Amino acid sequence: MPAGMMIPARNAPSMIGRNGNVGVFGSPASLVLGQWDILSNGGVVQEMAHIANGRDTGNSVSLLRVNSPNSSQSNMLILQENITDQTAAFVIYAPVDIVAINVVLNGGDPDYVALLPSGFAILPDGTAASNDSANNIMEHGSGGSLLTVAFQILVDSIPTAKLSLGSVATVNNLIACTVERIRASLSCENP
User: Which residue range or ranges hold the HD-Zip IV C-terminal domain (predicted)?
Assistant: First the structure.
């Protein structure tokens, strides 16, 4: 974990649509990331490595590169895990420094990589059940879905720094923007 002052933040669960298909977060993960994540900043997301995790093709760990027009992000990769089952979809990700990843890939200490994971969970809201219990509720839908977004953000590299109101406002804006981008990528209307 990096040294400094961090803000953990999350939204209250919010409705993201009716009869929405939350299973779209399967593969390819890189296409989805570019649609909702502020880290992509409008850039093209390239999946550099993909490791399947279990029998479900939607469950995986990916190493993503953001080819952003913003040159300050050129040394950043994103480590992302997607988990989908009959009850929920989870996307957990963390920006990682390309130099730190190269150290680990060349046999270095993985503790050298500072991770601040963030992510979101999409769950059925429980207002209606699937007619066929043998089928995946994620594919066949319910009355709607609930979205919870969580971030860990390094605000200042000085651990004793004071938290500013501007930092809180920025994080609140980031959460609201991310929720709206996820809604848009799922083609969900605001309920």
Answer: 35-188
Record the pTM. Answer: 0.74
Q: Where are the domains of the chain?
A: 5-185
Assigned token pair, 84? 């989908």
**What does each of the 191 residues of the chain score in pLDDT, given as a tens digit?**
677 777 778 877 666 665 444 444 433 343 355 556 666 666 777 888 889 988 877 789 988 887 766 655 566 788 999 988 878 889 999 988 888 888 988 999 988 788 889 998 888 877 654 444 444 444 444 467 888 899 988 888 888 888 888 888 988 888 888 888 887 777 665 55
Measured CA to CA, the distance from residue 96 to residue 118 in angstroms comes to 12
